[in-house]
Amino acid sequence: MVNDEPILIAPVSNPIRQEMGDRAEIANGLVSCSLKRKRPLMIEIPNVLCEIPVDVFKERGGDDDPVCFADSGVGVYSLKGKKKFMEDSYKVFASANGDKKFFGVYDGHGGSKAAEFVAENLHLKIFEMLETTSEDKAKEAACKAGYLKTDEQFLKQGLDSGACCVTALIEGREMVVSNLGDCRAVLCRGGGAAEALTADHRPTREEERRRIEDKGGYVEIHRGTWRVHGTLAVSRSIGDAHLKDWVMAEPDTKVICLTPDMQYLVLASDGLWEEVSNQEAVDVVMQSCSEGKKQLVRSSSEKKCRVVYPCTSPTPLAKSKRIRHPTGRKMPTIQQKRREDERCCENGSPPSKSRRISLVKQTKIKTHFPSNENEVLIEKPPYDGLLSACKKLADLAVNRGSLDDITVMIIDLNHHKA
C-alpha cells in the first residue's frame, strides 16, 4: 500500500551541510585540500637602496675601449675591468739624447687620480734625481728618491686615492727595476725561463706585517683578503693619505746587468698576475714573438728572391754621341737607351738584349750590401708579436675570471741594449 502522505524535510544547518558535502566529495574520490598556501608578505626595500640611480653601473661608451700602444721594442695593451672608471695607467719615456729609457705600469685604487699623477710625474722626478745625485749607486738612489718625491707631491693634492707601481729604467747595459704594491716585473731568459724580478708588497708578508704593527697599525682579514686596517690589500703605495703612517712609498729597487740571454721584460698590473702565473706569461710571450719572427724571416726571403738588374754603369760616360738612322730619324743616345732600360727594370721587365750583352762585357764587380739593407728592404710585417702577446695575456686573464683593470707592457730587451 502506497503512502501518499507528504514527507517533510527539515532544514539542515550550515555546519552539518558542510560536513555532508565533504563526505560526498570523499565518497566520489575527490579530495579537496583545506590548507591553501598563503602569499608571502611583500618585501619592503629600504629607501636608501632605492635612491641609487640605475645608470651608475652602465659602462661608458668610447672610454671603455682597450688602449693599444706599439713602438720599436715595446708593446702595451690596457683593458678596463668592471669598475666604473679605468684606474690603470702607463708611461713610455726616453731622454732627449735617447741614452735613458723609462717604462712604467701603474695600478690605481680608490680612483684614477693617483695613477694619472704618477704617470705624469714619476719619470720626471727620477730623471731629475739622476742629474743631481753623485753617489756610487746613483741609479738606485735616484729611483727611490723619485718615488718618495712623487708621493710627497701627490699627498699635497689632498686626495685619498693611491697607486701601485712597477718601473724599469734602462741605460747602457744596466736596468733598474722598482716596484710598489702588487704590480710585478717578470724577466724572460733564453729558453723561455721566467724569473720574477719583484716581490708583491702584501700585508701577508711577515716583514711587511711586522713593520705595520711596529708603527701601531694592524692587519686583519676582510672579504677573504688580509688588509691594512681592514681596507687596503697592499702594504706599499703612492698616495693613500689616510694610511700613510703604515703604507709607505719607498720602493724595492735593484740594479740588473743586462746579459745576452735576457730577452723580454713583462710589466703588468695585478689584474693579470691574479689569474696568470709568471711562467704562463713568459710562454705566451715566447710563442707570440717567435711567430712574429718567423713571419719577418719569410718576408725577408721573399724580398731576396726578387731579381734586380744593375742599371747604373760603373764609369760615367763623358759624352753622348748621337747617331742618325738611315731614314733620317734621330737614334736614341746611349744615355737615353740606359734610361729606357732603367724604366724597364723598375717595371719588372728585363733589359734589352744589347744592354744584357754590354753588362756581360763590363768588368765583374761584386756588390756589397750594407749590413742594415734588410731593415730597409723588409717592410714592417702586419703581425706585431709584442702587441699580440700583450693582448693574448689580457684576454687569458679575462677568460679566467679577472674583473680588475689589466695593463700589460712587454719590452724587447735586445732592442734596448746598448
From TrEMBL:
Record region (Disordered): 331-354
Nucleotidyltransferase found in the keyword field: no
Enzyme Commission identifier(s): 3.1.3.16
EC top class, as a word: hydrolase
Domain spans labelled PPM-type phosphatase: 73-413
GO terms, molecular function: metal ion binding; protein serine/threonine phosphatase activity
Domain of life: Eukaryota
CDD domains membership: PP2Cc
Family in the record: Belongs to the PP2C family.
Listed name of the protein: protein-serine/threonine phosphatase
Source organism: Perilla frutescens var. hirtella
Taxon lineage: Eukaryota, Viridiplantae, Streptophyta, Embryophyta, Tracheophyta
